[in-house]
Amino acid sequence: MGTRRRQGWVRDPDAVARVMEQLVTPVFGSTPAGSTEAPLPEAVYLWDACRKVTGNVLPARDQGAVGSCVGFGTSTAIEHTLCAEIASGDPDGFAPICQEIVYAGSRVEVGGGRLRGDGSVGAWAAEFVRRWGVVERGVHGRHDLSRYDAAACRVLGKTGVPNDLEPECRRHPVAGVARVLRFDEACRALAAGYGIAVCSNQGFGMRRDADGFAPVRGNWSHCMALVGYRRRGRAGGFILNSWGPTAHSGPVGPGNPPAGGFWADAMVVDAMLRQGDSWAFSRVEGFPARRVPGGED
């Protein structure tokens, strides 16, 4: 399957601007966590919080042959935020998030259904999870969302979130949403435990080098999740993709990160963020503590 069909980010600065108008603090650098001058840790790996909460890193996601990456990158970032919150003492529980609901809500409930074909805007997904929320994997009445279904995802991307699922979404809002524009801001967000959905047209090679970094190559209109950074030695950020556990090959690099991603050099991540449609997520209303994380999607 070619990578072209497995992307799906739509660049729309006007849509981003309209979403930012709805936010009290739209830029992460202006938030308390973003404006502090406290020293940063040399490295932060949010997947360590996932290991603490679930016993392992989260399973690699695969969006299949539909351009639903915005739903995946956003959901993955939020899942890591949720794990960081729980690992820090939040009494909520963890559950995998339905990427197709975030994707559908971004396109229809927020975007008004005006896009043809696949794809969405990162800001629309951020606005959906803030105003509507997220849904855990499982059976919700007549809706079996136990596993990701690419065909169903495409249909929902046209019809939107079913009305009888919206109350379930609203039980789990993501109250904190702010745009991240620079690598140093991203480091502060990650140090605070906030996963980041990164939307850009930067492409990469599929084989990681000896340090776990992927080379810059080509163009992807894509959304992925930034879930770790390091400042010592070769500075960079760790990006989780949504193309399954074997899409990338080679050494995974420092921090024993998940196999479904790669490290990217700090200046590359900075350039991706400066494209203006990347979002940090905080204050996730989680799931009942009795929940046990599900298996692979």
Model description:
The relative contact order is 0.22. By secondary structure, this protein is of the alpha+beta class. The longest helix is centred in the first third of the chain and has 19 residues, at 69-87. The chain has helices at residues 13-20, 32-35, 46-54, 69-87, 99-110, 122-131, 150-159, 166-170, 183-191, 266-273; strands at 43-45, 138-140, 143-145, 174-179, 196-204, 216-230, 236-240, 261-265, 279-284. It has 10 helices and 9 strands. The radius of gyration is 17 Å and the shape is globular. It has one domain (8-23, 41-284): Cysteine proteinases (Cathepsin B, Chain A, Alpha-Beta Complex), CATH 3.90.70. Strands 1, 4, 5, 6, 7, 8 and 9 form a 7-stranded antiparallel sheet that branches.
CATH architecture annotation: Alpha-Beta Complex
Total of DSSP H or I helical runs spanning 4+ residues: 10
The rough form would be described as globular
Tell me the number of structural domains. Answer: 1
CATH fold call:
Cathepsin B, Chain A
User: What is the name of the CATH class?
Assistant: Alpha Beta
The chain-level mean pLDDT equals 94
Series of secondary-structure elements, N-terminal to C-terminal: HHEHHHHEEHHEHEEEEHE
Number of strands: 9
Topology record:
Blueprint: H1 13-20, H2 32-35, E1 43-45, H3 46-54, H4 69-87, H5 99-110, H6 122-131, E2 138-140, E3 143-145, H7 150-159, H8 166-170, E4 174-179, H9 183-191, E5 196-204, E6 216-230, E7 236-240, E8 261-265, H10 266-273, E9 279-284
Antiparallel strand pairs: 1-6, 2-3, 4-9, 5-6, 5-9, 6-7, 7-8
